[in-house]
Amino acid sequence: MHANPQDVTISPGVHAIFMVYGLNKSEYADNAVKNLCGEFAAIVRSMRKRYPDSNPSAVFGFGAKAWDRLFPDEPRPKELETFQEIKGAKHTAVSTEGDLFFHVRAQNMDVAYELAAIISSKLDGAVYHIDEVHGFRYFDGRTIIGFVDGTENPENDDAVSFGVIGDEDEYFRGGSYAFVQKYLHDMKAWNELALIEQEKVIGRRRYTDEELGEDIKPANAHNAVTNIADENGNELKIIRANMPFANPSKGEFGTYFIGYASTFSTTKRMLENMFKGEPEGNYDRLLDFSKPVTGTLFFVPSWELLEKLAE
Ligand code: HEM
Fold this sequence. Notes:
The chain is an alpha+beta fold and 311 residues long.
């Protein structure tokens, strides 16, 4: 029924602002959010007209509880649920609260800020802050731990089929499941690892981004455990738009992970492989240096559905 996706298949960008809000319990709050649903496309469009060279974009998503409360007469997207923590023997993918989610991107920080500030002002008095992260492109698209990120992301038609709901959930066509996790890295321990050991953690060469050969890539390398296939052997992918962030004076160095997918079950399988391991115990070695402090699932409606939700 609905079709045009929000900007979930585009590149991670240069500056990103991730905002997670809780929804106040009031009729005023519900109305403010619905008004924003109606205005959101125009807000983004206006920013694009004002700053065409900065290519601003914004994505608006909803948590399961907020969806049920705001839109009791709408069906619920098939895979929208409150994320249940995934506990491995050593590491846990925590579940944290979140009702509304915004992913703002632009080539310039002032433009990203302006768009985030407009969105925030529309929700004044309706929401409370849960989390906000400002991410930046680091050199040639590297994570803060130094490796190029996003190389194996699907592109073109693949990006749409892996990232955006199609005919399999007709009513929610054009929508996407956004899963976010804020990771903090143990930079001291990471920097003490020899280069070849770091490369074995990620499964790629650090400088050239070449994939390690199967003869030297360990089974617990990050790109080994997240490489999954369906029952027919076809690779399953998600669209990752991760961004590094850092507050060096606080000793805080992180990755804001965001995965857009047409089915949350794909992302969930990757997480299970990372945290529990497949076979069990073969957990992702990257987790020995990276701790998730948030974990929340959101549904991102198509532009058409977002507008309908205002009614
Ligand atoms: C600390 C957080 C994370 C960091 C720093 C990180 C970094 C990276 C890097 C450097 C690569 C290799 C280049 C590439 O293909 O993009 C990669 C690949 C990948 N990551 Fe992550 N990642 C993180 C979390 C996650 C999570 C939570 C998931 C899934 C839920 C995930 C899924 C993937 C996938 C699917 C690939 C491609 C694997 C393949 O080669 O087929 N990553 N990641």
